[in-house]
Amino acid sequence: MGKTVQKLLKIIIHFQNWPVRFLELAHLAPRRLVTLQLRNGPSFFVRPYSSDVSCLQSITRDGEYFRYFNVMPGDTVVDIGANIGSFAVFAAYNEPTSRVIAVEPVQKNFDILRKNIDCNRLANIVAVRGGISDVSGPLIFHHGKGAWFASGSLYRIEATSDSKEEAPGRTLADLFAEYGIERCDFLKMDCEGAEYKILLGCPDSVWLKIRKIALEFHNFEPGKNQFDLLDLLRSRGFRAIIPRKYERKEIGLIFGVRE
Questions:
Q1: Are residues 178 and 96 part of one domain?
Q2: Which long-range contacts (CB under 8 A, 24 or more apart) does 203-206 make?
Q3: Residue range of the domain that includes 176
Q4: pTM: predicted TM-score of the whole model, two decimal places
Q5: Residues 173, 83: one domain?
Protein backbone atom coordinates (compact mmCIF):
# COMPACT_ATOMS: atom_id res chain seq x y z
CA MET A 1 0.00 0.00 0.00
CA GLY A 2 1.40 3.41 -0.98
CA LYS A 3 2.33 6.00 1.63
CA THR A 4 -0.29 8.44 0.33
CA VAL A 5 -3.06 5.87 0.68
CA GLN A 6 -1.86 4.98 4.18
CA LYS A 7 -1.88 8.66 5.15
CA LEU A 8 -5.43 9.13 3.86
CA LEU A 9 -6.66 5.99 5.63
CA LYS A 10 -5.21 7.23 8.92
CA ILE A 11 -7.12 10.48 8.48
CA ILE A 12 -10.39 8.63 7.79
CA ILE A 13 -9.88 6.41 10.83
CA HIS A 14 -8.99 9.31 13.15
CA PHE A 15 -11.45 12.05 12.15
CA GLN A 16 -15.20 11.59 11.98
CA ASN A 17 -15.53 14.51 9.53
CA TRP A 18 -12.45 13.52 7.54
CA PRO A 19 -13.53 15.36 4.33
CA VAL A 20 -12.61 18.63 6.08
CA ARG A 21 -9.00 17.45 6.35
CA PHE A 22 -9.04 16.21 2.75
CA LEU A 23 -10.13 19.67 1.58
CA GLU A 24 -7.17 21.22 3.36
CA LEU A 25 -4.75 18.77 1.78
CA ALA A 26 -6.23 19.66 -1.62
CA HIS A 27 -5.87 23.39 -0.81
CA LEU A 28 -9.64 23.81 -1.04
CA ALA A 29 -10.41 24.54 2.61
CA PRO A 30 -11.55 28.06 3.58
CA ARG A 31 -9.07 30.37 5.28
CA ARG A 32 -11.05 30.51 8.49
CA LEU A 33 -11.47 28.30 11.53
CA VAL A 34 -12.86 24.86 10.79
CA THR A 35 -13.87 22.08 13.17
CA LEU A 36 -12.34 18.61 13.25
CA GLN A 37 -14.22 15.94 15.19
CA LEU A 38 -12.23 13.02 16.56
CA ARG A 39 -13.91 9.64 16.48
CA ASN A 40 -14.87 8.84 20.08
CA GLY A 41 -13.15 12.02 21.22
CA PRO A 42 -13.39 15.81 21.46
CA SER A 43 -13.78 18.25 18.60
CA PHE A 44 -11.28 21.01 17.84
CA PHE A 45 -11.35 24.34 16.09
CA VAL A 46 -8.22 24.51 13.91
CA ARG A 47 -6.66 26.88 11.38
CA PRO A 48 -6.25 25.33 7.92
CA TYR A 49 -2.77 25.60 6.40
CA SER A 50 -1.15 26.06 9.82
CA SER A 51 0.60 23.58 12.11
CA ASP A 52 -2.63 23.07 14.09
CA VAL A 53 -3.70 19.82 12.42
CA SER A 54 -0.26 18.18 12.37
CA CYS A 55 0.16 18.96 16.08
CA LEU A 56 -3.35 17.69 16.80
CA GLN A 57 -2.63 14.43 14.99
CA SER A 58 0.74 13.89 16.67
CA ILE A 59 -0.85 14.29 20.11
CA THR A 60 -4.29 12.70 19.75
CA ARG A 61 -3.49 10.01 17.18
CA ASP A 62 0.21 9.25 17.58
CA GLY A 63 0.30 9.77 21.37
CA GLU A 64 3.38 11.99 21.22
CA TYR A 65 3.29 12.95 24.91
CA PHE A 66 1.83 9.65 26.13
CA ARG A 67 4.71 7.45 25.02
CA TYR A 68 5.68 6.32 28.53
CA PHE A 69 2.80 7.34 30.80
CA ASN A 70 -0.74 8.68 30.68
CA VAL A 71 -3.12 10.96 32.56
CA MET A 72 -4.73 8.97 35.36
CA PRO A 73 -7.99 9.47 37.29
CA GLY A 74 -7.77 12.40 39.69
CA ASP A 75 -4.50 13.72 38.24
CA THR A 76 -3.56 17.38 38.26
CA VAL A 77 -2.11 18.22 34.85
CA VAL A 78 -0.20 21.39 33.95
CA ASP A 79 0.27 22.22 30.27
CA ILE A 80 2.89 24.92 29.63
CA GLY A 81 2.55 26.08 26.03
CA ALA A 82 -0.98 24.79 25.50
CA ASN A 83 -1.37 26.37 22.05
CA ILE A 84 -4.96 25.65 20.88
CA GLY A 85 -5.41 22.90 23.48
CA SER A 86 -4.59 19.73 21.56
CA PHE A 87 -3.00 18.14 24.64
CA ALA A 88 -4.96 19.88 27.39
CA VAL A 89 -8.42 19.40 25.88
CA PHE A 90 -7.65 15.80 24.90
CA ALA A 91 -6.43 15.02 28.44
CA ALA A 92 -9.38 16.74 30.14
CA TYR A 93 -11.90 15.07 27.84
CA ASN A 94 -10.51 11.56 28.21
CA GLU A 95 -10.01 11.75 31.97
CA PRO A 96 -12.94 13.82 33.31
CA THR A 97 -11.83 13.41 36.94
CA SER A 98 -8.53 15.15 36.19
CA ARG A 99 -7.82 18.84 36.74
CA VAL A 100 -5.99 20.55 33.86
CA ILE A 101 -4.28 23.95 33.96
CA ALA A 102 -3.52 25.10 30.39
CA VAL A 103 -1.12 28.04 29.98
CA GLU A 104 -0.73 29.85 26.64
CA PRO A 105 0.82 33.29 25.97
CA VAL A 106 -0.16 34.00 22.34
CA GLN A 107 -3.56 35.71 22.22
CA LYS A 108 -4.72 34.12 18.94
CA ASN A 109 -3.88 30.66 20.24
CA PHE A 110 -5.45 31.41 23.61
CA ASP A 111 -8.72 32.48 21.99
CA ILE A 112 -8.93 29.17 20.10
CA LEU A 113 -7.97 27.28 23.26
CA ARG A 114 -10.97 28.84 25.02
CA LYS A 115 -13.23 27.94 22.09
CA ASN A 116 -12.03 24.34 22.20
CA ILE A 117 -12.70 24.13 25.93
CA ASP A 118 -16.17 25.64 25.54
CA CYS A 119 -17.25 23.58 22.53
CA ASN A 120 -16.47 20.37 24.42
CA ARG A 121 -18.16 21.67 27.61
CA LEU A 122 -15.17 20.85 29.77
CA ALA A 123 -15.48 21.99 33.38
CA ASN A 124 -12.21 20.39 34.54
CA ILE A 125 -9.82 22.64 32.62
CA VAL A 126 -8.70 26.20 33.33
CA ALA A 127 -7.12 28.36 30.61
CA VAL A 128 -4.44 30.80 31.78
CA ARG A 129 -3.22 33.56 29.47
CA GLY A 130 0.48 34.20 29.83
CA GLY A 131 3.94 32.73 29.67
CA ILE A 132 6.16 30.93 32.17
CA SER A 133 9.79 31.93 32.71
CA ASP A 134 12.40 32.18 35.47
CA VAL A 135 11.14 35.61 36.59
CA SER A 136 7.75 37.28 36.95
CA GLY A 137 6.76 40.23 34.78
CA PRO A 138 5.73 41.05 31.21
CA LEU A 139 7.26 38.86 28.49
CA ILE A 140 7.74 39.54 24.77
CA PHE A 141 6.88 36.67 22.43
CA HIS A 142 8.05 36.62 18.82
CA HIS A 143 5.65 35.14 16.28
CA GLY A 144 6.05 32.72 13.43
CA LYS A 145 5.44 33.77 9.85
CA GLY A 146 2.02 34.45 8.32
CA ALA A 147 -1.45 35.41 9.48
CA TRP A 148 -1.98 31.90 10.83
CA PHE A 149 1.14 31.90 13.04
CA ALA A 150 0.64 29.14 15.59
CA SER A 151 3.40 29.67 18.13
CA GLY A 152 5.30 32.30 20.03
CA SER A 153 8.84 32.16 21.36
CA LEU A 154 10.88 34.20 23.82
CA TYR A 155 13.77 33.67 21.40
CA ARG A 156 13.99 35.96 18.37
CA ILE A 157 16.04 33.30 16.53
CA GLU A 158 12.95 31.05 16.48
CA ALA A 159 10.72 33.72 14.95
CA THR A 160 10.14 33.94 11.21
CA SER A 161 8.66 37.43 11.21
CA ASP A 162 9.05 40.76 13.00
CA SER A 163 5.65 40.38 14.64
CA LYS A 164 5.59 40.10 18.42
CA GLU A 165 3.32 40.62 21.40
CA GLU A 166 3.51 41.13 25.14
CA ALA A 167 1.96 38.67 27.58
CA PRO A 168 1.86 38.37 31.37
CA GLY A 169 4.75 36.34 32.75
CA ARG A 170 5.06 34.28 35.90
CA THR A 171 7.32 31.58 37.29
CA LEU A 172 6.26 27.99 37.73
CA ALA A 173 6.26 28.64 41.49
CA ASP A 174 3.87 31.58 40.92
CA LEU A 175 1.55 29.39 38.86
CA PHE A 176 1.50 26.60 41.44
CA ALA A 177 0.77 29.07 44.25
CA GLU A 178 -1.91 30.96 42.29
CA TYR A 179 -3.84 27.80 41.40
CA GLY A 180 -3.22 25.88 44.61
CA ILE A 181 -1.24 23.10 42.96
CA GLU A 182 0.16 20.92 45.73
CA ARG A 183 0.91 18.00 43.45
CA CYS A 184 1.49 18.08 39.68
CA ASP A 185 0.97 14.56 38.40
CA PHE A 186 1.74 15.37 34.76
CA LEU A 187 3.73 18.41 33.60
CA LYS A 188 3.68 18.84 29.83
CA MET A 189 5.94 21.53 28.35
CA ASP A 190 6.23 22.88 24.82
CA CYS A 191 7.50 26.40 25.34
CA GLU A 192 9.74 27.06 22.34
CA GLY A 193 13.06 27.19 24.18
CA ALA A 194 11.93 28.65 27.50
CA GLU A 195 12.06 25.20 29.13
CA TYR A 196 15.68 25.82 30.16
CA LYS A 197 14.93 29.06 32.02
CA ILE A 198 11.75 27.65 33.56
CA LEU A 199 13.33 24.50 34.96
CA LEU A 200 16.68 26.00 35.96
CA GLY A 201 14.80 28.69 37.90
CA CYS A 202 12.48 26.20 39.59
CA PRO A 203 12.90 25.98 43.41
CA ASP A 204 13.11 22.68 45.28
CA SER A 205 9.63 23.19 46.72
CA VAL A 206 8.13 23.08 43.21
CA TRP A 207 10.32 20.25 41.92
CA LEU A 208 9.13 18.02 44.76
CA LYS A 209 5.50 18.50 43.67
CA ILE A 210 6.11 17.20 40.13
CA ARG A 211 5.61 13.48 39.49
CA LYS A 212 5.91 13.11 35.70
CA ILE A 213 7.30 15.37 32.97
CA ALA A 214 6.94 15.20 29.20
CA LEU A 215 8.68 18.13 27.54
CA GLU A 216 9.70 19.25 24.09
CA PHE A 217 13.24 20.65 24.04
CA HIS A 218 14.40 23.36 21.64
CA ASN A 219 18.13 24.00 21.34
CA PHE A 220 17.94 27.73 20.65
CA GLU A 221 20.24 28.93 23.44
CA PRO A 222 23.99 28.54 22.78
CA GLY A 223 25.71 26.19 25.20
CA LYS A 224 22.53 24.37 26.23
CA ASN A 225 21.09 21.17 24.81
CA GLN A 226 18.80 18.26 25.63
CA PHE A 227 21.47 16.46 27.62
CA ASP A 228 21.69 19.39 30.05
CA LEU A 229 17.94 19.01 30.64
CA LEU A 230 18.34 15.25 31.00
CA ASP A 231 21.05 15.73 33.64
CA LEU A 232 18.91 18.34 35.41
CA LEU A 233 15.91 16.01 35.62
CA ARG A 234 18.06 13.16 36.92
CA SER A 235 19.65 15.43 39.51
CA ARG A 236 16.14 16.33 40.70
CA GLY A 237 15.16 12.72 41.31
CA PHE A 238 13.63 11.73 37.98
CA ARG A 239 14.23 8.62 35.95
CA ALA A 240 14.55 10.43 32.63
CA ILE A 241 15.01 9.40 29.02
CA ILE A 242 15.48 10.93 25.58
CA PRO A 243 14.03 8.54 22.97
CA ARG A 244 16.80 7.45 20.63
CA LYS A 245 15.35 9.23 17.59
CA TYR A 246 15.70 12.61 19.38
CA GLU A 247 19.25 12.19 20.72
CA ARG A 248 20.85 14.10 17.84
CA LYS A 249 17.95 16.46 17.08
CA GLU A 250 17.67 20.18 17.79
CA ILE A 251 14.01 19.69 18.73
CA GLY A 252 12.61 16.59 20.40
CA LEU A 253 11.09 15.07 23.52
CA ILE A 254 12.31 14.18 27.00
CA PHE A 255 10.31 12.12 29.50
CA GLY A 256 10.81 11.86 33.24
CA VAL A 257 9.15 10.02 36.14
CA ARG A 258 9.98 10.75 39.76
CA GLU A 259 11.74 7.79 41.35
A1: yes
A2: 203/173, 205/173, 206/172, 206/173, 206/176
A3: 63-258
A4: 0.93
A5: yes
